[in-house]
Structures are given as structure tokens and as C-alpha cells.
Amino acid sequence: MVDEPSRTPVTAADVEHAVRLSVTALRAGLAADWSAPAGTLEWDCWETVEHLSDDLFAYAVQIGPAQPPLDGEVPYLWEARRPGGPRNAVHADRAAGPAGLLQTLEASGALLTAMVRTASPEVRAYHGFGVSDPEGFGAMGIVETLLHTHDVAEGLGLAWTPPAGLCDRVLARLFRDVPEDPDRWRVLLWATGRADLAGRTRPDKWRWYGEPLSSGAATP
């Protein structure tokens, strides 16, 4: 269990940093086959980045209205382009190629960064895992970014290891009772069912906890 007074909050700068790292890493695979499966997902690499861009967009708009919804999502139309594909409101133009796809990721990340930075810490909005605050939505966006970049990097044959401090801050914000193992990236992969951890059974089901924590959020 996280000791709340000693926790370092997740900030808008963390969201910006995570997306920048992701885009930089994935640019190394522009010439690769983006139709390859993304890690263990049922989606290909293109679809997974499109889904990630959509995640960041969705978290940004959820805290955007003057009175954010507490019982459902802002009603954009989310739809899949094929059976089994991700249900997105954001769809990248295939004619723009992988470079254009990464532009949509960068732009959606900038939207979430701006909303986490400017929204009042008192804002609350609906999420399926619990009503959350701007810090929580920022942390969710980072987790989506780190994990789906991992999935796509596996599919494209790229290296990807995000900073331990970034992993530690989102673990402290969204996950409960995670091990104190010093490899915080490995712990995040384990907590989301993507990796084994010595002495621990890999979870077959997982979730995060986005509910606001007592100390509030920091948004520099």
C-alpha cells in the first residue's frame, strides 16, 4: 500500500515526457511492417498506436466540459473499423503513413498534457474504473502510453524501457499493493499481466484505481 504523504504526484510534465519518449522510440520503426501484431494483443501495430492516440484524446475530453459527466463518457462516437479492432473516435489517415500516425499520437498527448495542466484539481469525471481527477487521468494516459508502446515495440522489433521514476509515480497513483521490487518497469508490466515477477503469480485479471487520493494533484 502506498504511503500517501510520501507519494510524488503525477504531473502534466510526466504526461508530456511519456508521450515524447514513445514517439521518439516508435519513430525508429517507421520503415517496419506496421501490420505486424502488437505484442500479445489482437491488434496490429498501426491499430494499437491509433488506440493509444484515442485513449489520450478520450482522457483529455472527459475532463473538458464545464460540468464533466460523472455517470458516463463524453458522447463521441467510438467505432471499430473492422470486427475485433479497437473502438476509436480518433482514426489516423492511412495515406499519411506511420509518420502521420505518430503525429496523431503526439497531438493527442498534447491535448491531455494541456488538460492536466490547466484543469482544477477539484475536477471530477467518469471513468469505468472509478470517478477520477486530472492527476488520475494523466496517470492513466501515461500507463496506456508506456504499455502500448511496449506492445508496439515488440511488434516492430524495437527497444523500449521507460524511466523507473515515471513507472514508480504511476504505480503509486493507480495501483494498490504492488511489490517493492526495484525494477519498477517490470512491476508495471507484471501488474498489467504482461510479465512475470519472481515470487509472484502473474495476474490474469487486473485494473487500476483512478479514484482521487487525499493529497490532491499537482499539475506543473
Oligomer: single chain
Unreliable residue stretches: 215-220
Q: Alpha-carbon distance between the termini?
A: 26 Å
Number of helices: 6
Map the helices and strands.
Layout: H1 12-27, H2 45-62, H3 97-118, H4 134-156, H5 164-174, H6 184-191
Helix pairs in contact: 1-3, 1-4, 2-3, 2-4, 3-4, 4-5, 5-6
Characterize the structure shown:
- This is Mycothiol-dependent maleylpyruvate isomerase metal-binding domain-containing protein.
- There is one protein chain.
- Helix 3 (97-118) packs antiparallel against helix 4 (134-156).
- This protein has helices spanning 12-27, 45-62, 97-118, 134-156, 164-174, 184-191.
- 45% of the residues lie in helices and 0% in strands.
- Residues 215-220 have low confidence and may be disordered.
- It contains six helices and no strands.
- The two termini are 26 Å apart.
- With 220 residues, the chain is mainly α.
- The protein is globular.
Short précis:
The chain is built from six helices and no strands. It is mainly alpha-helical and 220 residues long.
